[in-house]
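re: ur question from yesterday

yeah so i grabbed the chain u mentioned. its 363 aa long if i counted rite. heres the sequnce exactly as i have it in my notes:
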Amino acid sequence: MKVRMGKPPPRPGVELHMVPLSVLDLATIASGATAAEALADTTRLAGAVERLGYHRLWVAEHHGMPMVASSSPAVLIGHLADATSTLRIGAGGVMLPNHAPLVIAEQFGTLEALHPGRIDLGLGRAPGTDQATARALRRTPDLGADTFPDDVVELIHYLAPSDRPAGHPTAVPGRGYLPEMWLLGSSGFSAQLAGLLGLPFSFAYHFAPGMVDAAMKLYRDNFTPSFLLAEPHAMVAVSVLCADTAEEARWLSGPSALATVQLRSGRLGPLATPEEAAAYRFSEAEAALVRDTAATHLIGDSDTVRQGLEELQQRTGADELMLSTRAHSYDTRLRSLQLVAEVTGQPAVPAVPAVSAVSATAG
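ran it thru and got these structure tokens back, copy pasting raw so excuse formatting
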């Protein structure tokens, strides 16, 4: 397959030393709210994120979690893409072992056909849930992800442009409706695989910060150019909560701290209010867990958060950064993103090399 690699046209956006910033949103169900209200908030946030100049908005597949409404990324992505016009919308990610590659190819081929040039498909290999729910999703006792590399290749094959006759089975919409593909990871496995397959790589620093340096090196050391990508392109996702003052940011981060303890202990529920979090009495072990987890979160005023983003980008060499903000209210999430946009705010040129023309003799 012969291709000419190019770059997408400039789009005004939020930048940090020419590094585009994006948003990861989990359609958070807050205490006292419903799933419908959470999904409506994420839809409102997509419009705001677009107006603020962020490059992408991703939602993530999670199942059986009372505080997360994004269990069906493809459905939600279609809705968010309808509610916006220039923002890239995607999955960060689809947990591929939960699905047949053909199904995901048809879902995202359809999304790409409806919203050409705006859809991202990030693939992960974790279940995104507990073992019982994973078995219910997969209809098998085997919860391994041993076939993940082959499944990724199969999925790309269904969607990649080619002038060869279509095989059987085939995805419809499929061939030629390839969204921007990413591999996601929190360890070296997906980093190395993304490099070998010549795909962009997004690292989950927001919950696995200790592996970021090794993973980024593995990705770049193993990168092989592909028809999708000419050179390595990496994004790092980081937890951010920015407020007008450091004291306010710490107060608003209380629900996220409590959620960390609840998730670790299996006491799942909607995301608490700051008042509920402040009233909770953490044990010594729980307090230590929160301190350790929050040590790499960027929580503070605009200057503190900007400095943290700059340091993370310089340390990792990330081509993009993605901000994840777990907060009780829509207004808190929006204000955080507004402050980051204000403090970083010049137009950015997204730098993922894209296929600008394809003359295919597939193989």
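noticed a couple things. Residues 257 and 291 are 9 Å apart (CA to CA). also The chain is about 40% helix and 20% strand.
anyway ttyl
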